[in-house]
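Sanity check

After download, print the first record. It should look like this:
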Amino acid sequence: MNNFKLPKDKSEIIDGLVEKVKRDYQEDIDAVICYGSYVTQTYNELSDLDFFFIPKTKKANEMSLQFIINEIGYDFWPITWERLEGFIKLKEDFVSLIGKGELVYYRNDDVLSKFYDMKMRSQKLLDADLKTAIRKHLYKSKALYFDMYQENSDYVSEILDHLITAVAYINKQYIIKSPSHLKEEIKYYEVLPVDFEERIEKIISHSYMVISTEIEKLILDVEKLSKKQFDKHHIVELNGFYEELKSTYNKVYHGCEEKDLMKVYFALSQVCKATKDVLKENYNAYPFPDLTKEVRSKRFDSIKNMTKIHEETFCFILKEHNEIVNTFSSNDQFIAYLRDL
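Expected structure tokens:
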């Protein structure tokens, strides 16, 4: 049922809980999941066993237990499906409970399928959710930094927690253990602030009153890294973009036929701005002609040809990104398309 091995004493605890669920809560609890150090095989003799259950009914909450065995505390707690969905959207920083969680009991195959669908989605976090979560952690780190000196209180650990979590999300990863295991967490990250680990060690080795500038610089560096990482290769949604832009390309062609410089100039400006906005820094990675320079030549045949090259280049990018352009050669073809929708 699971892919990890437990020591005998921990296995007995799980078995006891699962037997209790099967006996008294079979229709009330959908699943029991283990996570944490025993799943990642990083436990020690004082490690607790981390687990939770997914309730199906309100009665399931009666199964919530906190207990101590041989001086080690345990918490068997409920997490709803809805809250788990929130983890995947990074509304809370517990996505590792799904990504690294292991089912030790599930009520039926539908539950099994539902949980593993979540598990798959936890491995492919959405850019929009990552960016929102990064902004949240950066905002909180800045707010705490401000409050720290207004209130004369030490919030360094909370600030660093937020920054380390933000760096994980910048790398499209999530914290598996905790920020306190920094070396393990960042081992496979592709992008990091310069001397990230050393700077954190320096910050925690000094009083926050002495090291204030270092904390501020680290916050700003994480923020810069976030913008660089998400803006550099990010292309705004392309679906439907070309269909709207096509009429602007046509205005350029018509203006060239009429030799209307003002019409051509403003249509070309709109084409250039729109494509640069959607492609961002990627615009310069493709051989787009310099239409702004071309329009000043007033050679309308040349302007028209260069604009066609610009349009063809953009169409190449659409193909590269597997974008389908809705184009039809006749009204009849379009109407037939509508019938098949």
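If your output differs, re-run the checksum step. Summary of this record's structure: Residues 127-232 form one domain.
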